[in-house]
TrEMBL record:
Pathway: Metabolic intermediate biosynthesis; chorismate biosynthesis; chorismate from D-erythrose 4-phosphate and phosphoenolpyruvate: step 1/7
Record EC number: 2.5.1.54
Known catalytic reactions: D-erythrose 4-phosphate + phosphoenolpyruvate + H2O = 7-phospho-2-dehydro-3-deoxy-D-arabino-heptonate + phosphate
A family per Pfam: DAHP_synth_2
Protein name: Phospho-2-dehydro-3-deoxyheptonate aldolase
UniProt similarity note: Belongs to the class-II DAHP synthase family.
InterPro entries listed in its UniProt record: Aldolase_TIM, DAHP_synth_2
Keywords, sorted A to Z: Amino-acid biosynthesis, Aromatic amino acid biosynthesis, Transferase
Highest taxon above the source species: Bacteria
Amino acid sequence: MGGQTETAVKRDVLAELDTYRTREAKQQPTWPDAAAVEAASANLASQPPLVFAGEADQLKQRLAAAARGEAFLLQGGDCAETFEAATADKIRDRVKTLLQMAVVLTYGASMPVIKLGRMAGQFAKPRSSDTETRDGVTLPAFRGDLVNGYDFTPESRAADPSRLVQGYHVSASTLNLIRAFTQGGFADLRQVHAWNQGFVSNPANRRYESLAAEIDRALKFMEACGVESAALTQTEFYVSHEALLLDYERPLTRIDSRTGELYDTSGHMLWIGERTRELDGAHVEFLSHVRNPIGVKLGPTASVDDAMRLIDKLDPEREPGRLTFITRMGAGKIREALPPLLEGVKAAGAQPLWVTDPMHGNGITTATGYKTRRFDDVMDELRGFFEAHRAAGTVPGGIHVELTGDDVTECLGGSENIDEETLATRYESLCDPRLNHMQSLELAFLVAEELKQIAH
Ligand SMILES: O=C[C@H](O)[C@H](O)COP(=O)(O)O
Ligand SMILES: C=C(OP(=O)(O)O)C(=O)O
Ligand SMILES: [Mn+2]
């Protein structure tokens, strides 16, 4: 192909991608200075990709296995990552928590677990309201560190495009550390006890300890038999975030030199949120043009028709692993809302990966103003998810949760029995309440029980 022609082909591919600019993009910030957005965008466009297209393809294959019931997806991390909390200790504790949960699930289900962080890019938030009022003062709502600051001052809450570039660099250093941890020996299964160290002692990690002891024995047995495998010493770990801010996603979208196809290189998997999944909206249009695995959140108002149109638009070829539906119905609604969706999509012959987000349909606000969730509701939605799939004969392929390795008090209940008064002691989230380390392990044990029933 001549140089001229190749340039023309690339131009056409990018022009198609840019169709999204003609569609309505909800939940975008009001940037005060268009020239500064241009400059940030040009800067991002000149940066190296954060992930390699081949890795996104590999994840797609793993997700395809999950959709067939041959693997299980564990997707988790903060609601809103922050620049300040992108420290070695906090990243390590989140990775450790996910590795621990993965061990519990793998052991329970005898199935590979795909580890996918809500990490290294989860910096932009859709909000119910554009503004926040405190003591009679109204300012723009906090939209995530990629947009503005959390401090309640006019300066901090003004949208600042230079944050787009800062977010790229924080994502790069986060991803670098994740890669180092998971490839460099930290994720070696012989560290299964070490991942539990440093966390406050609690019933869930004591239960974990006894499972870790069993795994240890099994590993020693395998070692004695001469079994050696990289699968025991390293682990694949992928990253994902909501592709909300198109001024961030667009300049990080690149043409893959191997295939000439477009990939959004800001993360391995990108998802579309409940508030931005309109079929004719900019987010659906944008992601329809990239080849990464894509998720879409589906809330209780989603119809079979909505789901089928999204499938036709985002996955017209029905490519295995391409599309994940992340349902977030609420504990009180899942048993009514999910079965018809599963049955309708199945009847139409489609096989997306079905994942449950048992967090976002269960939000409540306490009298004292804390956004929280009851751990019991989260567990109840999880059970409802497995029930619905059992009844429909479809595959419950994974979970999507907001969690942290820190000992926070953001969700009510769990075996520590966090109550409304306790919430104030260590409520650190800048957006939604996360499961703490113990609640995350408890949840993993429950899911493992459910998966065991399927396996046997
Ligand atoms: O994850 C996010 C929240 O659910 C979303 O940002 C909405 O939060 P809000 O209702 O506090 O704006
Ligand atoms: C905003 C989120 O979810 P949803 O789009 O399902 O409300 C989220 O995952 O943080
Ligand atoms: Mn959230």
